[in-house]
Design goal:
The complex is a heterodimer of chains A (403) and B (290). Chain A contains 13 helices and 14 strands. Chain A is of the alpha/beta class. Chain B has twelve helices and two strands; from the N terminus they run H-H-H-H-E-E-H-H-H-H-H-H-H-H. The chains are: A alpha/beta (403), B mainly alpha (290). Chains A and B meet through helix 1, strand 7, helix 8, helix 9 and helix 10 of A and helix 1, helix 4, strand 2, helix 5 and helix 11 of B.
């Protein structure tokens, strides 16, 4: 009889599809009350005296290299803190999840951390994933520390503090530099996400204020694009003096490379470049200018000295901001855990960690001298470095105050 | 404006030629065996990375690296047919199961390539990306090289039309049962189509990597556009798919002049949807057979 066979085939297909769907789907968002109410209270202290916190990084995808650098800072801080005996009698442990640079995967990873691992605090990177993680953090009373995203929509959000200089403070430095160099026709090529959009708007505003008026070209590309020839052709036709490239990691390098290959001669610059652009961009990266939180090699602060020197020993290169702000954010958590434990509280309770942060909204500066203060909008203002790629390496040529 | 359109057309026609080559390599397998061979993206990725590895790490001259990679890719394609699709087909698995198996191969290979070579984008030093100017038009060296795709496509079509095995391939694509009853060795012909299509993926991957860098996700990107072109082109031939791919690439580039660039992909696929709605059977009836 053919019928049962057909049914079993259909069943097999359905089973396979549902299995695949289950494997791909984000972790089920178990209701906190249902899961935590009866068996054990949410954020109960883990056995063995461990403080487990969550970390959202870009471990795969086009910005994976930034995730690697973030991870260097993370591992260094956790190792050091545990060597010093942990905090509040607890050993530090990071539960690292991959957000792949996208909001969608950020939500899945955040749900995993909050609903399955029940961490009381999460350090995140990137604008899109952090923005997507914030409502989950607020709902579940988890302290969220953004250690990378620059989009202005991350400001003034409950439970979210930003150890990053935001786009409106980051982009004017590049705009002003370009203006002072006598460039008047500016173009922008930006990723079509929170980071790209926020940065490009901030640049445009700063450019208008300087008297530059409109951008001669203002192009976007999808986050996962690898071919920019059409956009760059359009930009080239507008003949700009300066091209702002807002993209993460190696994508920025690809754009620079393809731009030069299509005969774009404009001075290129962009925020928050990483060493990725040197490898991918090769000779085309020469002369590229970026802005980001300054790591001051001449810092006198003993903590900063230790970070800069240990990093160099351990990883063989000078630290840049993605490792630095991550390192600082882990130490911020240590200070919060210490503060809560000192008052006899429970560091596994996100609410108590937040209270400690609100009581003392500062952060030790491990990248330069002087503490860093969170403003009322939950962001920091700190010195920026302008760097230029010279002979295949980033050379800081100006340290400026953000505006 | 005219200059811009000329430049965009040049970019579109060259990138479209690359799409056409990928579409023909995918169509060689899809049109013959009717497997939605998403794992072709895996073969594409491995082929590209193999050329990279042979030239960058082993210091093999580029032409030899390409030949070796073509052979390896062909074997890989045949291995996927023998190890995955054929057992499933013989167990009477529905096409959806073959498709799922194919998705699995693509995802696993993407992960393995990322683990081995890192997720960063790699470039072959022997293939410099330089500007080339022809009057008002500037394209890259990689763009120019993409035009060579048509030479390879012509060779494939000539083989299909003139050789005995080529006739077998066309017969199997057209009417597998009739072909089998007339004595065409269907199983062997399937293997041939996997070998040919997979081998052809290597030059395509090389051109792709030359212009955009080699990344573990390159296979999925390439296969999405190629499979769309082949489906729209219809099942009766390879050239319709190639032409659709060329048109698709050109539209994608020219759209930049008229719609904000962030919506380029959305606009391209909106046109695809409209075509599909108007001609669900594909465009091929209007076109030539091979």
């Amino acid at each position: 009889m053919p019928m049962p066979l057909r049914i079993s085939r259909t069943l097999a297909t359905l089973l396979a599809v549902s299995f695949l769907a289950a494997a791909c789907a984000p972790a089920p968002a178990a209701s906190p009350t249902a899961a935590g109410g009866a068996a054990q209270p949410a954020n109960a202290p883990a056995a063995g005296g461990t403080f487990t916190f969550g970390v959202l990084l870009s471990l795969t995808g086009p910005a994976a290299a930034i995730g690697t650098v973030n991870r260097n800072g993370l591992e260094m801080a956790v190792e050091e803190i545990n060597q010093q005996g942990g905090a509040g009698g607890l050993k530090f442990e990071a539960n690292v999840q991959d957000h792949k640079g996208t909001a969608q995967d950020g939500v899945a990873a955040m749900n995993q951390l909050v609903n399955i691992s029940r961490v009381p605090a999460v350090i995140s990177t990137f604008s899109g994933p952090t923005l997507a993680a914030q409502p989950i953090a607020a709902q579940n009373k988890v302290v969220l520390i953004n250690s990378g995203g620059t989009d202005v929509s991350l400001l003034n959000k409950p439970w979210l503090y930003n150890n990053q200089v935001m786009a409106p403070n980051l982009m004017p430095a590049l705009a002003r530099y370009s203006w002072e160099q006598g460039f008047r026709k500016a173009a922008a090529l930006s990723s079509n996400d929170a980071y790209g959009d926020g940065s490009r708007k901030s640049f445009q505003e700063a450019w208008q204020k300087l008297g530059g008026g409109q951008l001669v070209a203002d192009e976007l590309f999808p986050l996962d694009a690898t071919d920019f020839s059409a956009q760059l052709t359009k930009i080239k036709a507008a003949n700009p003096d300066v091209l702002m490239v807002v993209a993460v990691g190696q994508t920025q390098g690809q754009i620079i490379k393809q731009a030069r290959a299509l005969g774009v001669t404009a001075q290129m610059l962009g925020p928050l470049a990483t060493n990725d652009i040197l490898g991918v961009g090769g000779p085309a990266a020469e002369g590229f200018i970026d802005s980001g939180i300054a790591v001051d090699p001449k810092a006198q602060d003993p903590g900063a000295r230790r970070f800069i020197e240990t990093y160099k020993q351990k990883y063989g290169s000078d630290p840049d901001w993605p490792s630095g702000t991550m390192y600082e954010s882990v130490y911020l958590l240590r200070d919060l855990v210490n503060a809560v434990a000192k008052q006899g509280g429970d560091p596994h309770d996100g609410e108590q960690l937040l209270k400690a942060l609100e009581a003392n909204p500062t952060l030790h500066n491990y990248l330069a001298d002087g503490n860093v203060q969170f403003g009322p909008d939950h962001s920091v203002l700190r010195k920026l470095a302008l760097r230029k790629v010279t002979n295949g390496a980033f050379q800081p040529f100006s340290i400026v105050d953000p505006q | 404006m005219l200059d811009l359109l000329l430049n965009l057309a040049a970019v579109g026609l060259t990138v479209g030629s690359l799409y056409a080559l990928i579409a023909v390599s995918f169509g060689l397998i899809f049109n013959m065996t009717h497997v939605f061979h998403l794992a072709h993206g895996a073969v594409f990725t491995i082929g590209g990375y193999l050329v990279y590895w042979l030239t960058a790490t082993v210091n093999v001259p580029l032409p030899i690296a390409v030949l070796v990679s073509v052979a390896v890719a062909a074997v890989l394609g045949v291995a996927i047919e023998l190890g995955l699709y054929r057992p499933l087909r013989e167990a009477a698995a529905p096409p959806m199961i073959l498709f799922l198996g194919s998705v699995g191969v693509l995802i696993v290979v993407e992960g393995l390539v990322g683990l081995t070579f890192g997720t960063g984008s790699l470039t072959i030093a022997a293939l410099p990306l330089q500007p080339l100017t022809f009057g008002p038009v500037t394209i890259t060296t990689a763009n120019l090289a993409m035009l060579s795709g048509w030479l390879l496509i012509a060779l494939v079509v000539a083989y299909l039309v003139n050789s005995r095995n080529g006739r077998f391939l066309r017969a199997v694509a057209d009417q597998p049962r009739v072909a089998a009853s007339l004595g065409v060795p269907v199983r062997r012909t399937f293997l041939l189509s996997f070998a040919l299509g997979s081998g052809l993926a290597v030059p395509a991957a090389l051109l792709y990597g030359w212009s955009q860098g080699f990344a573990p996700t390159m296979g999925l990107n390439a296969i999405l556009i190629a499979s769309a072109a082949v489906i729209i082109g219809g099942r009766t031939g390879l050239l319709p798919g190639a032409v659709v791919a060329l048109v698709l690439g050109t539209i994608q580039a020219l759209l930049v002049a008229f719609v904000p660039t962030g919506w380029q992909d959305g606009a391209t696929f909106a046109i695809l949807l409209a075509v599909l709605l108007m001609r669900p059977q594909g465009l091929a009836e209007y076109a030539f057979r091979w």
